[in-house]
Design a protein that fits this description.
Order of helices and strands: EHEEHEHEHEHHEEHHEH
Oligomer: single chain
CATH topology of the largest domain: Rossmann fold
Strand content: 15-25%
Bound molecules: guanosine-5'-diphosphate
Structural class: alpha/beta
Number of domains: 2
CATH architecture of the largest domain: 3-Layer(aba) Sandwich
Shape: globular
Strand order of the largest sheet: 2-3-1-4-5-6
Largest sheet: 6 strands, mixed
Length: 293
């Protein structure tokens, strides 16, 4: 058998190229939030996949946001840059048939020696023949270690991508135990799941700056008792989240609870509160509490 390899892989690209979906496909289990709304992944979620001859440590990145300038986004950009710089390999994710200034700006900020271009969403190409010229023009943008067309949605070519990535990882023993999927704890996932349900249910109605804080997470025998607060920016946003007679929030919370029970493999009690925290993205204390800085 070939020598064991282990290394870190940063997943970078402009918002909506499918980085979170790709991470889930590569790790083989749902970990990061997938949502049609740009920049919903606010944490650097790490997923770990261990095979017979390789351990892949993935770092998801929230995407390089250049338009927003508040404290939260400054922190996010700094962390994305660090994650990408420190990784052994950077996966630069683009959408098949689409390469614009925003993609180019992200690519120019990648400083890694090894960059693999991942051309995602090939399932959306109406004409498969369009792929080759696209790959050709992409190859002119930079000296890529490889260009790999994939579909995070259908799983097409994901195994091939893993094979190519492995070739570029250093020979060394595994860093994490083989059965470990992530170094995040259950508390972290509880917040991510609730946030995903908020985005999915409210979609465009969701106050953009809306955050979830886990106030307490207790294990009582087989039951996990979780209290969570949903922070919105203005009083007027509260009813949007809560809905008439609290029905909306109830739906969101039950959907989140079911996902948590599946992931944690046990019963969950989930209490949710909606509170107004105006200007929280500028509040360093809250940022620290959320683990951003
Ligand atoms: P991120 O912002 O880069 O993390 O992107 P997401 O993973 O959240 O995906 C953005 C949108 O693209 C979501 O609606 C996904 O369902 C969709 N998407 C991701 N990968 C694929 C793919 O391979 N094919 C298609 N058709 N859609 C995809």
């Amino acid at each position: 058998m070939s020598a064991f390899r282990c290394g870190s892989i940063a997943i970078v690209g402009r918002p909506n190229t499918g980085k979170s979906s790709l991470l889930n496909g590569l790790v083989g289990q749902k970990l990061a939030i997938v949502s049609p709304k740009a920049q919903t992944t606010r944490h650097l979620v790490r997923g770990v996949r261990t095979t017979d001859d390789c351990q892949y440590i993935f770092v998801d990145s929230p995407g390089f946001q250049t338009r927003r300038r508040d404290a939260l986004h400054r922190t996010l950009n700094r962390r994305s840059d660090e994650a990408a710089r420190e990784a052994d390999v950077a996966l630069f994710v683009v959408e098949a048939g689409r390469f614009g200034d925003e993609d180019r700006a992200v690519l120019e900020r990648i400083t890694n020696d090894k960059v693999i271009a991942v051309v995602n969403k090939v399932d959306r190409l109406k004409d498969a023949k369009a792929l080759l010229p696209f790959l050709d023009s992409l190859a002119k943008e930079r000296e890529f270690a490889a260009l790999v067309p994939v579909s995070a949605r259908t799983g097409k070519n994901i195994d091939e991508l893993l094979r190519v990535v492995r070739e570029h990882l250093p020979q060394q023993p595994a860093i994490y135990p083989p059965d470990q999927l992530t170094d995040r704890d259950e508390r972290f996932f509880a917040a991510e799941i609730l946030r995903e349900k908020l985005f999915r249910t409210l979609g465009e109605d969701l106050p953009y700056r809306c955050e979830v804080v886990i106030d307490s997470f207790k294990e009582e025998g087989a039951l996990r008792r979780i209290e969570a607060t949903i922070l919105v920016e203005r009083e007027s946003q509260k009813p949007i989240v809560i809905g008439a007679k609290g029905e909306q929030l109830k739906r969101i919370a039950s959907a989140a609870r079911r996902d948590m029970e599946r992931l944690f493999g046990g019963k969950v009690y989930l209490g949710t509160w909606v509170k107004v925290r105006s200007g929280w993205t500028e509040d360093e204390r809250i940022l620290r509490q959320l683990g951003y800085s």
